[in-house]
Amino acid sequence: MGRNRIIFWFSLGLTLVNIWFIFNYILSSFNQDVFQTKQHCQPISSTKKSSREIQLNFNIMDIYRIDVSCKYITRDLGSKISDKFVDKNKKCSASSLTKDLNKKIQNSLSKREVNLYFLNLNKSISFDPFNNDKDFDMFNDLKLGGLWKPKLDPGKECNLDNIDHVVFVVPYSHSRYDNLKLFLINMHSYLQKYQYPFSYKILVVEQVDMESKFNKGRLINSAVKYIIDSRENADCIVIHDVDLVPSNDGNKLGESGDYRCRKMPWHLSRKVFNIKTNQERLYNQFLTGGILSLRLEHFIKVNGFSNEYFGWGAEDDDFQVRMFNQKLCIMRPELREQPSFKMLPHESSKASNTRFSYLSNALNRYEQDGLSNIDNLVEIKSIDQFKAFTYLKVKVKK
Predict the structure, then answer these.
(1) Alpha helices in the chain (DSSP H)
(2) Nearest Cα to 96, choosing from 168, 158, 167, 154?
(3) Which residues are CB-contacts of 87 (< 8 A; sequence separation ≥ 6)?
(4) pLDDT digits (tens, 9 = 90+) for 8-54
(5) pLDDT in tens, 264-280
(6) Is 63 exposed, middle or buried (0-12, 13-18, 19+ CB in 10 A)?
């Protein structure tokens, strides 16, 4: 009897030990799976990021599903948009907090004839942008270099010192000569007839000595560096594709055709009508290409465009990543039923095969790659003043 009791307790103890070992084995296996799963799901970078910042460690195409609009930031994320870039000293600037701004500008204007803007698509028109001999009515009030200032009554609240001065930066290739011709004719006509006028200048920058593929980012950085070095009193920079012009009903565009800067970057060309395909296109909420108006401080804050994108594509997306990373959201006018801008016919460019590899590490490069190192990567060949625009010729180094 005593022997049987010993055998019983021994067997029970052995069974409990086995159960304990089995339990610990299962528990350790479970914890290891969880640990591996967490490791697999972690971003490559160990840096903690807020939910509002872009995660680029996974599929790069995910960024095109991100809504970077200020409306989304304020409405869905509940974040307050900073007033840091509001120019409170310039009371007639569109970025100021002045109430009834446009009414004050109109009250300060000298009396002028109300002329309507009509879109001109006649590419055979007798006009050579690089020849100052031909006169157009819209060019009569221009100063050399494509500079125009509205006529304001002295003593009124708004004057030339406190309204916006806008510089249009237009990257250009000689293959777009017909586009440039129509762009200048239509833009000068539209801007001088806009109901809330501002002073402006058109700066065209072309890549010459095409030993390298077209590099839009380096051209834009070169132009902005020129603006800074020449001490141009630019409140606002508009990066504008040469193939986009205001639509037929330009006189009714209002805010949708207002190029003046806001307190955050201002994107105008989300909806465009393509003349060649006879179709309109609505671009996604991440896109900021085409026409983007932003303050000079914005451009400097993100170190300008990347200099690494040769060929077509993704340099605008890289710039958007930079802006979003610096907590610059995108403001846009309300979408109209009809597109506010039309795309002039042109040959499509071939997309670069390397664009997404550069885009995937955009945030790793932006502090060293951009406006800060542009002097080492280009050579300004010439600066010419034509009647309708200032012309920068830039050689892009390999």
Answers:
(1) 2-41, 70-75, 101-108, 177-193, 216-229, 296-301, 315-325, 355-359, 362-365
(2) 158
(3) 93, 95, 96, 235
(4) 666 666 566 555 555 554 444 444 443 333 333 333 333 344 444 44
(5) 999 999 899 999 999 98
(6) buried
